[in-house]
Design brief:
This protein has 108 residues and is mostly helical. It contains 1 helix and no strands. It has one helix at residues 42-107. The chain binds a DNA duplex (20 and 20 nucleotides) through residues 1-6, 15-17, 19, 56-57, 59-61, 63-68, 71. Keywords: Coiled coil, DNA-binding, Nucleus, Transcription, Transcription regulation.
DNA sequence: ATAAACTTACGTCAATAACT
DNA sequence: AGTTATTGACGTAAGTTTAT
């Protein structure tokens, strides 16, 4: 199965193209008192996790686009090289034929 | 006209290579 | 060792071609 869940709980019934948020997100309206002395309430942790995930997805999205662009270019390059070599080959075959011909007629 | 088959581009995940 | 970048594999949507 390709659609395996990631670190945020495998929800097999959710289409892959939907953006999932970490399950650590608290229900609407629930406000936790920030633990005294720290800036790391569960909410803040969850928000930070979401922010990190979205940033990661954004970066990877762009990386994937670039990767495909490079691959396409590479393939185009190869195809071009094939065309060039095919032409060279054709020319060489013609040349060989001509030389053989010449040699034959000389031999008579 | 349209249903089915094929193509193209995309976003995501996971593995791993490259970097610090 | 932890973090970030790269890329193959997969599923999806939209576009195009082909057969009826």
């Amino acid at each position: 199965m390709a659609v395996t869940g990631d670190e945020t709980a495998a929800t097999g019934d959710m289409p892959a193209y939907q953006i999932r948020t970490p399950t650590t997100t608290l229900p609407q309206g629930v406000v936790m008192a920030a633990s005294p002395g720290t800036l790391h309430s569960p909410q803040q942790m969850a928000e930070e996790a979401t922010r990190k995930r979205e940033l990661r997805l954004l970066k990877n999205r762009e990386a994937a686009r670039e990767c495909r662009r490079k691959k396409k270019e590479y393939v185009k390059c190869l195809e071009n090289r094939v065309a060039v070599l095919e032409n060279q080959n054709k020319t060489l075959i013609e040349e060989l034929k001509a030389l053989k011909d010449l040699y034959c007629h000389k031999a008579e």
